[in-house]
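Hi V.,

You were right to ask for the full record rather than a summary. Here it is.
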Amino acid sequence: MDIIYLLFTYLIASIPFGYVIGKISGKDITKVGSGNIGATNVARTVGKKAGIIVLILDMMKGFIPVYLAKIYLFPHYGDKYIAVVALTAVLGHCFSVFMKFKGGKGVATGIGVLLALSPKVALIIMILWTGIFLATGFVSLASIISAFISWIAMNYIDGNYYYTLSTLLASAVIIIKHSSNIDRLIKGTENRFIYK
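Predicted structure:
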């Protein structure tokens, strides 16, 4: 495997766009709202436009390295290598070297990775996420359920063993990163992003 490209993927995915956009807007995103550098906290504390920008950038830093590896750079390495690149992208976002190995929760970057691995699976997960979010108002609940379903969808729709394994491991990381949200959901203290 090309270790240099994996390092490149990790560094690209580590770029904390939420933190950068927050700083540009005059706020330290780690010290306001939930303290998370993801698009949701940026939208809540900086503004919706800033949140959308962060969402797109976080998706792209998952999509671009995996897409390049899959289509252009290393097709001769096979699906196993592509799956490792995919997992590396999620890990880079969640454990950013630029944030002292802290980071976001991996949802947007994970969607970007899914778009590169399997657009059909990504579309299903985005529809599922949107439905749960609109029905409940909870970003976290939509993210947790979608992450759990993602590897199942990958297995049944795409059928690629390595992609499925990578998606399973990435979804486990995403769910673990939502542990505090899970605790608040159970206690009934989780904040809704939208109110019914």
